[in-house]
Amino acid sequence: MAEASADRGRTTRQRLLAAAAALIAEAGWGGVSTRMVAERAGVAPGVVHYHFASLPDLLITASTEVARAMLEEFTARLAEQPDAETGVEWLLGELSRYTGNDPASLLLVEMYLAAARLPELRDRLHEIVAGSRAKVAAWLRDRGHAGDADAVAAVLVAVVDGLMLHRGLDPALDFTALAGPLRAMARTDGHKEGSGP
Amino acid sequence: MAEASADRGRTTRQRLLAAAAALIAEAGWGGVSTRMVAERAGVAPGVVHYHFASLPDLLITASTEVARAMLEEFTARLAEQPDAETGVEWLLGELSRYTGNDPASLLLVEMYLAAARLPELRDRLHEIVAGSRAKVAAWLRDRGHAGDADAVAAVLVAVVDGLMLHRGLDPALDFTALAGPLRAMARTDGHKEGSGP
DNA sequence: TATCGTTTTGGGCAGTCGTCCAAGTCAATT
DNA sequence: AATTGACTTGGACGACTGCCCAAAACGATA
């Protein structure tokens, strides 16, 4: 029963999601309109509300799918690094590929921002970020990290996001120069400090 | 010549700025309209374009003034801390007062985001953040920091912003548990790593 | 060929937006 | 009392918004 119709619908839905994700980065979360998405996807304006309940619904779905894919690939590749110090090195190198004004960075920051006002988005993004943090902590433990792996992981993930923010302001910011302090933190093998008092 | 009129105008301008800063945090940069600001300030809708050239002009002026005051007070109080380790401790304690969803945090994040699309705002915010970074670095050097103070300062400021972002997603995130890794980084007195390779 | 379900179309609705502007208020100066 | 000049008012303008819906299009089934 109407098999090809369903197929057409699926690809249209995907085109809408891709267009929405791109436009969030280009125009900002609040700058995306249903008509913009429809035009970018090459469909009529009304089609958005056929496939999605509302504009926020579309934006939330599109952004979380992209973010989840991004962070999962990121942590997966980090997990391949042999030890904590080269991992930090790799992290900074990888991070240098993002200018802070590229679509990927902008999409992530837009999500953080919109999440403050959209509880559903906040929950989904929190789940994604918490997952990344847990994977980084597990990787540190696997590599024989002696200190509080959870704390180091939390700081590392925060540093990544913070640097992304700052890179948007200052494209000249040199990430590789920050390797020293971060290595010192990721090592933490000769110190007494664990989790807390 | 019309002295009292000028006074009236100045206070109206200040009310507009205060209303705009509050509304950016509440409704988001893109969610603020001229009518909202005017109503909050208790003036007629048209008055916004008498005191400011445009809505972005008002928002940029209002947000940068608040952000500059905030960060200057923050770095000034950090500079009072006796040494790097207690400074980090104080930093985390101070940071714990921000929920990630409070007006101050939201305003800052909104600015970072809007800065990606507003060159003038980006330049002003960059100047403010760079100033904070320089003060933190100077404070580290004053306290006898042996390593690359600039790099440590950059990481510290990035951590603060990143944690603010994450705090919005997860109010349960415990900053004080992160003191260990950050102290290890801020110390850096027994290591060989400086700035370069 | 006729019917069915799904998908697509394009216009309509009621509302908000930024910006502008002629008319008005009000205190200080002439 | 008349004039000046800064400031304020409230409505108007065209453009844009999210969402909705009757009608058309289209492939698969009967």
Q: What can you tell me about this protein's structure?
A:
Two copies of one chain form a homodimer. Chain A has a domain at 55-187: Tetracycline Repressor, domain 2, CATH 1.10.357. Chain A is mostly helical and 197 residues long. Chain A is built from nine helices and no strands. In chain A, helix 1 packs across helix 2 (34-41), helix 1 (3-27) packs across helix 4 and helix 4 runs parallel beside helix 7. Chain A has helices at 3-27, 34-41, 48-51, 55-79, 84-95, 103-115, 119-142, 149-169, 179-187. The longest helix of chain A is centred in the first third of the chain and has 25 residues, at 3-27. Helices cover 72% and strands 0% of the residues of chain A. The interface between A and B is large, with 55 and 56 residues. Chain A binds a DNA duplex (30 and 30 nucleotides) through residues 1-6, 8-9, 12, 33-35, 43-51, 54-55.
Offer a few descriptive terms.
disordered C terminus; 9 helices; mainly alpha; elongated; DNA-binding; 72% helix; Tetracycline Repressor, domain 2
Mean pLDDT of chain A: 91
Overall shape of chain A: elongated
CATH superfamily of the domain at 55-187 in chain A: Tetracycline Repressor, domain 2
Residue runs with pLDDT of under 50 for 5 or more positions of chain A: 190-197
